[in-house]
From TrEMBL:
Gene: hmgA
Disordered: annotated segments: 21-44
Pathway the protein contributes to: Amino-acid degradation; L-phenylalanine degradation; acetoacetate and fumarate from L-phenylalanine: step 4/6
GO molecular function: homogentisate 1,2-dioxygenase activity; iron ion binding
Binding site for homogentisate: 356, 377
GO biological process: L-phenylalanine catabolic process; L-tyrosine catabolic process
Subunit structure: Hexamer; dimer of trimers.
Protein source organism: Streptomyces vinaceus
Location of the Homogentisate 1,2-dioxygenase C-terminal domain: 286-438
Protein name per its UniProtKB record: Homogentisate 1,2-dioxygenase
Binding-site positions, Fe cation: 341, 347, 377
Keyword field: Dioxygenase, Iron, Metal-binding, Oxidoreductase, Phenylalanine catabolism, Tyrosine catabolism
Length: 440
């Protein structure tokens, strides 16, 4: 392990957090940095600048309003002009370079990154939907990296970023403090929050959902009651930590689909204190409280929803984040793997570790599958045959961790994803051999 990764790991292991999703958190790295009783006093404490970062319109309902007050060494307004820079393999909606494909698609993991590739340079867009400029829809990216971001900071004006590590841990230095996320955890970076990614291992790989729409929130529980699924208290927010660094720092902003760059004479991660609701989080997926059937039938996958971005239609999400966590299967007279189905929603599935119970082979950690709106899918032939003949005793599913980005609109793939060398050309073959068993 490099000295830089070793130092990042030591920092990550010593982190402390605030807890609770959607809370009005407050934190100060220096006592007295938060002004009491008001947001923008005539002279902010300790010679700091007061600045509000709004992730929603001022007049949105209180329950949906996202904003944080930051008390920083220099105001964000003090910067030189931004200029266009290379987008690399990063793409943004609307995706118009190719028609939406009704075929079922599956990819192997991204190949290893070229030496010196950091998180930002290693982002690779698979596809998405909607329009970033209209703040609707989402995009699916993958990342591969073998270098930490050095004197470089990134922010996304187009949407919030849900980062799902599959290999290698990440130290995320954000304006509001530090987060650490490794395989089995997810990190949520709100729209517009600046951050830098440092690697905790020699390389890193994973998935990113860029949500252009309403910010992710915890789903309503309905008849489930007051408890279950992802608990708000298990989401960890950072405590204030600041950089007082005066050296050239590249600040890259994703704005309406393009990357724009400016070189500051200081680090913009200089927030000494903050409070509010526009907050980064990290969440351990193994803490998800799975709800399932204790009688018969396989429940709909909506019971595995961790976070949801609501749309203007109740119950129809712009994007859901779903996790298939370890659980018991006990259904009687039940085909226990996910059933065959066609869905009005579009589903991208990734695998963090182990195996997925509906696919016997070909679906590997770091890879992913896309089943667009109304495409028929379900267990492969080997899984169907095995599950149809299995003895129905209680069974623990604990040898894999899979997830799904589910969205209301079809996902259009980018040309680079449609023509990628790691696209599996024979994916349809997994359903070949499903024989006729009908007897009149």
């Amino acid at each position: 392990m490099s000295e830089q990764a070793e130092q990042a790991r030591k920092t990550a292991e010593a982190l402390e957090y605030l807890t609770g999703f959607g809370n009005e958190h407050s934190s100060e790295a220096v006592p007295g940095a938060l002004p009491p009783g008001r947001n923008s006093p005539q002279r902010a404490p300790l010679g700091l600048y007061a600045e509000q970062l709004s992730g929603s319109a001022f007049t949105e309902p209180r329950g949906h309003n996202r904003r944080s007050w930051l008390y920083r060494i220099r105001p964000s307004a003090a910067h030189p002009p931004f200029t266009r820079t290379d987008n690399g393999a990063l793409r943004t909606a609307p995706f118009t370079k190719a028609p939406a494909d009704p075929n079922r698609l599956r990819w192997n993991p991204l190949p290893d990154a070229a030496p010196g590739t950091d998180f930002l340079a290693g982002l690779w867009t698979l596809g998405g939907n909607g329009d970033a400029g209209q703040r609707t829809g989402m995009a699916i990216h993958l990342y591969h990296a073998n270098a930490s971001m050095t004197d470089r900071v990134f922010s996304d004006s187009d949407g919030e970023l849900l980062i799902v590590p599959e290999r290698g841990g990440l130290l995320l230095r954000t304006e509001l403090g530090l987060l650490s996320a490794g395989p089995g955890e997810v990190a949520l970076i709100p729209r517009g929050v600046r951050f830098r990614v440092e690697l905790l291992d020699e390389d890193a790989r994973g998935y990113v959902c860029e949500n252009y729409g309403r910010p992710f929130e915890l789903p309503d529980l309905g008849p489930i009651g007051a408890n279950g699924l992802a608990a708000a208290r298990d989401f960890r927010a950072p405590v204030a930590a600041y950089e007082d660094v005066e050296r050239p720092t590249e600040v890259v902003n994703k704005f309406c689909g393009n990357l724009w760059s400016a070189t500051y004479d200081h680090s913009p991660l200089d927030v000494v204190a903050w409070y509010g609701t526009h907050t980064p989080y990290v969440y351990d997926l193994r803490r998800f409280n799975v709800i399932g059937s204790i009688s018969y039938d396989h429940p709909d996958p909506s019971i595995f929803t961790v976070l949801t971005s609501p749309s203007d239609t109740p119950g129809l999400a712009g994007v859901d984040f779903v996790v298939f966590a370890p659980r018991w299967l006990v259904g009687e007279d039940t085909f226990r793997p996910p059933y065959f189905h066609r869905n009005v929603m579009s589903e991208y599935m990734g695998l963090i570790e182990g195996a997925y119970d509906a696919k016997a082979e070909g679906f590997v950690p770091g890879g992913g599958s896309l089943h667009n709106m109304m495409s028929a899918h379900g267990p492969d032939r080997e899984t169907f045959d095995r599950a149809s003949a299995a003895e129905l005793k209680p069974q623990k599913i604990d040898d894999g961790l899979a997830f799904m980005f589910e969205t209301r609109w079809p996902i259009t793939t980018t040309p680079q994803a449609a023509g990628a060398d790691h696209l599996q050309r024979g994916y349809d073959d997994v359903w070949q051999g499903l024989q006729r068993h009908f007897r009149a």
